[in-house]
Amino acid sequence: MATLTLNNVKKSFGKTDVIHGVSIDVQDGEFIVIVGPSGCGKSTLLRMVAGLETITDGEVQIGGRRVNEEEPMARDIAMVFQNYALYPHMSVFDNMAYGLKIAKVPRSEIEERVAQAAKLLQLEPYLQRKPRELSGGQRQRVAMGRAIVRKPAVFLFDEPLSNLDAKLRVQMRLEIRALQRELGVTALYVTHDQVEAMTMADRMIVMNGGIADQIGKPLEVYANPATEFVAGFIGSPPTNFMTGALLGRSAETKIGVRPEHITISDADRLKARVTYCEALGAETLVHLMVADGSKITVRQDASLPLPEEGTEVGLTWADADEMNFDATGKRI
Amino acid sequence: MEKRVTFKGIWLPLLLVLPQILITAIFFFYPAGQAIWQSLFIPDPFGLSMQWVGLGNFEYLLSDRYYRASFVTTAVFSILVTVVSMGVALYLAILADRLIKGSGTYRTLLIWPYAVAPAVAGVLWLFMFNTRVGVVTWYLGLLGYDWNHVLNEGEAMGLVVVASAWGRISYNFLFFLAGLQAIPKSVIEAAAIDGAHFWTRFRTIVWPLLSPTTFFLLVVNIIYAFFETFGVIHTITSGGPQQATTILVYKVYSDGFVGQDLGSSAAQSVILLFIVSILTVVQFKFIERRVHY
Ligand SMILES: Nc1ncnc2c1ncn2[C@@H]1O[C@H](COP(=O)(O)OP(=O)(O)OP(=O)(O)O)[C@@H](O)[C@H]1O
Ligand SMILES: [Mg+2]
C-alpha cells in the first residue's frame, strides 16, 4: 500500500520518442486505468513503473521514494501480464509461492499465504496442477494469485483480461475490482477497452500517441473531454464530429456531439439522410449521412418511432451538449 | 490441421520408400551383417580361410586389458567433449540471447566451424599446437610451458578434446539459442519482478525450461564423440601416445586395418553397434517423456 507518483516521465527507444512526459499523483489504494489505442505507449509506461524498461527522463516514486534506478524486485510491485507469464514447469502452488520462496519466507507462512490467496480466487482444487492443465480464466486467477501473495505496494496489470471471452471478461472485471478494494492496494491497470476503463477506474489516464490527453474520473472525462481524441475514444458509439463549415461557423473549429444528445426532429439544425437503423432492444442506433458525406449516429430510446431508411430528417441538440475543438484538437 | 495423404494398395508406397531402403540395406544392413558374421571367426594369417570361434573374439576382447582401457579412454573423452562443447555453447547462447543489436553477425560467425570437416579441424589444431612449428606451442614456450602432446598423454587428450569440441560448439549453440529464445520474455520478467536475480532465474526458470534441448544435445553429442571424432584423432594423435587417445572407434580401425586382426575388429564393431542402439533407444524414450510443459 503506497502512493505512486509519475513526474514528467519520458521514454525514447533510440531516437523514437514513445512517451512524451506523463505526470500523475496516485493516492494510496486508488485504481488508475491507463487507456488508449494500440501503440500509444500504455505498456511502455507500465513497464517503466515496473522497472522492466529504463526511464529516459523524469521520475517515478513509489511510497514517496524515487525508484528510477531500482531493479524490479526492489520496487515492491507485482505485475499481471497479458499472457499471464506463468512458470510452465511449476504447479499452481509453486507459481504462487515462487516469489515468497526467493524472499526466504518460512515454509509455514508460504503455505498459509498461498492457501489464503487460493481460497480468495477459488483456486483450491487446482493447486497441484500445471498451468497447461488450466482454462484461460483459471490461469488468469493464478497470475492474480501470484501477484497478491507477495502483498506488494502497487499492482500493475497489462491488459489482463484481453485473452478471455466476453462474458468471463465482465465477471473478472468485477472480481479484480472487488479484490483490489478488499486488499486496499494501489493499482495501475492498462487496457485498450474503454468500457473496462469506464467501469473499473477511480481515475483514468487517456493516452494518445505517448501523451496523457486527459486524467480524471471516468464520468468527468466522459462528460467533459479535454480533446477531440478523448471525445472520440471514450463513449460507445463514439462522439459525432462535424466541421465548422457544415454548421456555418469558423472552418477552424470542429463540433462534437454525443449520439445520445442528438434528437431527430423537425426543428432542425442540420439535415441528414437515414442510412440504416439498428434496433438493439432498449435503444436504437440511427445511422445518418450529412451533406458533406460525414456520418452521424443518433442513439434514441426504443419507444421513439423509427425513421424510414433513405428519408431525409432534421437533427437537433442543446447548445450545452456541444463540444468545440480547435484545429489542434484542443477543447475550446 | 495436418494433411494426410492416404495411399491405396502397397506397391506405390513401397516404391516410394525403396531408394531409402536400398541405401540403408547396402550401406548399413549389409556391412553390419557382415561385421556380425566376421566377429564369429578368426581368419588365418594369409586370409585364405576362416576358423569358427563362436563368441571367442568377444571373450578375448573383454578380458583384454587394452580394450578395457580403451573403454575408459572413450568415456573420459566423450564426457569431456560433451561437457566442453555444450558448456561453451550454452555460455555463448546466453550472451547472444541478451544481445539485441549485432546478434545476427555473431551467430553467423559462430556457425562457421560447423562447416569444417573433422579431419580438417584436426589438421588445423595440429598446426597450431605442432610441437616444433605451432603458434600456440611457441607462445606457451615463451610463457615457460613446454607443450608436447606427442609425448604427454594428458596434453594429447586435451588437444583432441578441444579440437573435437570446437566443431560441435556451433551446432550446440544454435540449439541452445533457439531453446532460449523459445522461452517467453514475460516469464523471465515475471521472475525478475518476483525477486529472482540473474543466476536464480537461470537455475529455477531457464534451465528447467531448457532441459528438453539439453537432453537432446547430450545424447547427440555423446554419439558424436563416440563415432564421429575419428578424423580428429587420426590426424592429431593417431591414438597415441601409448594408446592414450585410442577411443573405441579408433581401436576398430587400428586393430583391423593396421593390426590386421579382422575378427577382433569385427567383434569391436558389433559392440559399438550395441552401444549406439542403446543410446538411440534412450534418446527416443526420454526425449518424448522429459518435455516439461
Ligand atoms: N523495445 C522497443 N523498441 C522500439 N520501439 C518500441 C519498443 N517497445 C515498444 N516500442 C514502440 O513504442 C510504442 C508504444 O508501445 P507499447 O507497447 O507501449 O504500446 P501499447 O499502448 O501497449 O499498445 P498495445 O495496446 O498494442 O499493447 C509503439 O509504437 C512501439 O512500436
Ligand atoms: Mg501493450
TrEMBL record, chain A:
Keyword Cell inner membrane: yes
SMART domains attached to this UniProt entry: AAA
Gene Ontology terms: biological process: carbohydrate transport; glycerol-3-phosphate transmembrane transport; glycerophosphodiester transmembrane transport
Domain of life: Bacteria
Pfam family, one: TOBE_2
InterPro entries on file: AAA+_ATPase, ABC_transporter-like_ATP-bd, ABC_transporter-like_CS, ABC_transpr_MalK-like, ABC_transpr_MalK/UgpC-like, Mo/tungstate-bd_C_term_dom, NA-bd_OB-fold, P-loop_NTPase
Any one Gene Ontology molecular-function term assigned to this protein's record: ABC-type transporter activity
UniProt keyword terms in alphabetical order: ATP-binding, Cell inner membrane, Cell membrane, Membrane, Nucleotide-binding, Sugar transport, Translocase, Transport
Gene Ontology CC annotations of this record: ATP-binding cassette (ABC) transporter complex, substrate-binding subunit-containing
UniProt entry tagged with the keyword Transport: yes
Every ABC transporter domain range: 4-234
Family classification: Belongs to the ABC transporter superfamily.
Name recorded for this polypeptide: Sn-glycerol-3-phosphate ABC transporter ATP-binding protein UgpC
From TrEMBL, chain B:
Pfam families: BPD_transp_1
GO cellular component, one term: plasma membrane
InterPro entries: MetI-like, MetI-like_sf, UgpAE/MalFG_permease
Topological category with respect to the lipid bilayer: Multi-pass membrane protein
Gene3D superfamilies: MetI-like (1.10.3720.10)
Predominant location: membrane
Family note: Belongs to the binding-protein-dependent transport system permease family.
UniProt protein name: sn-glycerol-3-phosphate transport system permease protein UgpA
